[in-house]
Design goal:
The chain contains three helices and four strands. It is of the alpha+beta class.
């Protein structure tokens, strides 16, 4: 499993965010555990569209920071931020294409011949 993204909230709760489908019992694409729990975490289903994954990540991180905010306010916030970022081109990078592109223009770091 890939390393989680780790962050702290303004209340010093330490969260780990995993791109992993939440348990079926939640019937949700993302879940944010209560910040007062030991080792709270966020789970986000990676099997969504790129835009939906971005929206779900923003939504669940908003819950972590603003635990007492209503679901409606968190959803409105996440939808607004995700729409703006996606419109401005903040999309998931194709790692394979990026790796090939960066190798093309890279100069060798080998020793120069005398």
């Amino acid at each position: 499993m890939k390393k989680p993204f780790v962050f702290r909230t303004h209340n010093k709760a330490r969260y780990e965010l995993f791109l992993k489908k939440p348990p079926k019992r939640y019937q949700a694409e993302g879940i944010c555990y209560d910040p007062i729990e030991d080792n709270p975490k966020i789970l986000v289903n990676p099997n969504q569209t790129e835009k939906r994954v971005m929206n779900t990540i923003i939504h669940e991180i908003a819950h972590a920071f603003f635990w007492d905010a209503s679901e409606g306010n968190v959803a409105k916030f996440a939808n607004t931020v995700a729409r703006l970022l996606y419109k401005e081109g903040w999309k998931k990078e194709d790692k394979i294409a990026h790796a090939a592109k960066s190798k093309k223009g890279r100069k060798s770091r080998g020793r120069k011949k005398k």
